[in-house]
Write a structure and sequence with these properties.
2 domains; alpha/beta; Rossmann fold; 44% helix; two-stranded antiparallel sheet; nine-stranded mixed β-sheet
Amino acid sequence: MLELIRSLCDKSTYQTIGRVPVSAFDKEPRKILETLIEAHERYDTDITPVELRYIFDAKNPGLTKSQKDVYDLLFAKLRDIQPVKNGLVVDLMRDMWRVELGRQISEIGFTMMEGQATDLSQLEKLVDRHRDDVMVGTSPMEAVDLQPENLLSELEQEEKWAFNIRSLTHRVGGVSPGHFVVIGSRPETGKTSSHASFAVAPGGWIEQGARVHTLCNEEKKERVALRYYNAAFGLSKNDLTVEMVKAATFNPFNPEAGLFIGRIPDDAGIEGIEMHVKEHRPDILVIDMLDKVSVEGMNGTTSQHEKLRELYRRTRDLATKYDCAIFGYSQLSAEAEGRVNLNNAMMENSRTGKAAEADLMILIGKYAMIEGSQENDPRRVFNISKNKITGWHGQIHVTLDGAKARYDD
């Protein structure tokens, strides 16, 4: 207590504190503190312990000998005490306000239990009066640098990893660390081929220098890897040979290229994914399928909507926390089957939660198969239903070569 009083003798410290929780001090130190506060209100200067004693004696001429002995000892200690640093005083005072406010609130609660108070008006007045005393003193907000050379340079990084489809690049550009992209489609539409094509087809993320990690839990990881081989070399499974791969000028599967393809164990969940990202720090992370990833403590008893909302929030946080662009793949409802005009309402489960977290949403539409046809229509439509990167929304028409796992204009 005396250490804080000694620190408050400094005028600037006293002004920084603002209001002091006088009632939180013991009886005798409280009387000295009340004298110090009155002195600060009268004098625009520091108050030394010696000066404080003179002012105190002038205010309290009727002290008994025993009382005077108590204050003699307190003022002697006060003269020998070193003041606490300004920043620490502020934190200590805030803690004292919190404890004192809690004590006063408990007293009001007791009077309500005893029936002496029947409404919350007394409590509301107390909280309103002391709200600023327990709040953090400085704003936690981070300001943007508004200087044009710095701002424009920062915005240039918004599209660090470009898409390798000309029409998509024209409308959307690309992604950068911290972006969360949600891609949705119906089964057998070309989800796996899309991230294979984005990653390893000519001009893809690997060629741009990105470390790409693809985690899958729907198809076998070997089948996913095969799609990447198809996309990288533009060949179907039957045309691929070991000799041809080894002789390739650019091979995205060399260890130094930074490509990783693996399976998410059933018991790993979003927690396991975070452990992987924390350890390996990829530039781009693909999760296929994100909807099937578990969340610890939210399986079985939690509704699918709540689980997915939390899962997408956690995935969004991963992208921001580890400066990683994340592509999460999702299933569209049966309403999207055989349709190319798609919207967020066709997302399966927690459509609002998914859309709220995404920076970019691409819904892949596929034309209905003509009755009697032996081959699927290669045309696909990228519906850009949310776009915080460039702001453009609309449809981009592309084609998919399924055997080669490549998308193109």
